[in-house]
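anyone else get weird line breaks when pasting these?? whatever heres mine. first is seq + tokens for prot A
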Amino acid sequence: AAHDCTNLVEAYFDMCQRYLLFCPAAIVFCEVLSSIASCGRQCLATCKGERNSTRATLNFLDKLIGWQRLPVPPESKRTLESGAQRLNEITATNGKQVIQSCIDMIVGGPRMLWPAAGDVIFSVVLASVGWPVPELPSISMAQQWLENVDISVPNGDSKGGNPAMVYRQTADELLVMARTGPNMKAKSKILLSDMSLALNGHKAAEII
């Protein structure tokens, strides 16, 4: 299990991140790219919040899902764009579960991992906010994924207001931020942090 070899998980996803940045063809055209992404998604849950392995996994997923905004040379950018369909399929396949795992981490995980988890959530929402749900074209995949998140408050008690209402307000704000553009990424992390503090009774729900 991943939690028994967190050093290996950390090294593996650090390596994947470097390939994505400095030799993107090795990732974009890798035959097992979908398995790599699936492994990352599963490690978010099975590493149980271990700092280094989880952060390495989050950083890789953030860059993989947010590939369009990577600060890479023009040649690397062209390589990424040539694999756009494959890369977007990674988000479409894993987005829902990744959002759920990252929300769980922000609500009940180590605070030091909140910023990295927030980065991934915003990258997923930003990538998919313009993708209509096939059977419900009036809403986006990002909206559907956010609406389907199951909020679990530690100890089953929230002193910062109704958990469902606090989360719903946060999700609505995230969608607005994503529609505004990538420059809202920093504000989205503050929003998610405030949500966690409210749900855990450390701040009033009105701060959302």
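and prot B, same format (seq, then tokens)
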Amino acid sequence: TVLPSQVHAEATFDLYRAARNAQEVEIATQAAAETRAALEKCIGSRPEEAQAWLQLSSLFEWEGQISEGRDVLRSALSLQPADDSLHSNHARLSRAIGGFEEVVSAYAHFLKEHPDSALGHWYYGVDSFELALAGVDAGADTRASFASAEASFSNCRALEGSYEESCLGYEVMCRAGVGLAMFKAGEVREAQRAFLSMEQLFEGGLAW
């Protein structure tokens, strides 16, 4: 059953976006307030449904309040830790706030509360990998970061088998990253071992 407050929220959000695009400030301001009130009423009635949380976060984003939008999603994830749409938007806004490092920090916190979340491990792993890769380009020693990312992907596929192929792809790239970091540090023999270990993950891993 669709809540009347949900219908109201969708109508006023449409009005808000149209007013913003038309630069009608007074109408947009009033519509934003009505939309927020309606969405908060929806959340109060059905906190288990993600859509109202996502719309409220989107409203804050439209208003340029990225941190507030991310906080809404963080609250939603505390109730719905397995919702992919909440995670993807939470990671996106975290990235907008502080890049890969902010996502890693946010998901390190999330995983303390939800250690068995496959999606938590996935997003921690993805941005840990990207952060480590950027560190290699900057000449930093990122072996520990690659190892942390690999462990997170391993946890992710252990918790959710449907992610196995994607996680293994990242895991083999993490080992390649370790090898690259060692090679750049002049540790040629260790780098060779790291590259060869790619084949241990799955047949053909070295050629990935």
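btw re prot B: The chain has a mean pLDDT of 94. The first helix runs from residue 4 to 21.
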